[in-house]
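thoughts on my protein:
***
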Amino acid sequence: MRFRTLQYDVPGVADGGGAAEIVFSLFNGTDGGPTDMNIDRWVNQFRTPEGDPAEAEITKTEVGGMKITRIQTAGSYQSMGAAAPRSGQGQIGAIIEAPGRRVFVRLVGPEGTVNGTAEAFDAMLAGVMPAG
């Protein structure tokens, strides 16, 4: 199973810091695990300065007949395999439940860059449609 189907750099925005990364992962059926489990994992990778899980804004919508769960959070980010967490990071993620498959989209990077691209991320989600 390939977890990163597509991966791109997102340029930093003015006063937002450096580049962020957006990753698209495509899973058939229920591969990749339950939506709530993945959202919880994403939340728990971000911490407050005190070491507690960072607060996350989680919304559920439906677009084009597909359920979308969206998350946004910020704090110190502990990526898989990293020796130490990076502070000042942000995340916007979404799991799109399409017929027979799911698409995971995750944008992670400097908080200013992530916040500065939130509108474009949400426009992308608002425009998703099933193929065919």
Notes: The longest helix spans residues 35-44.
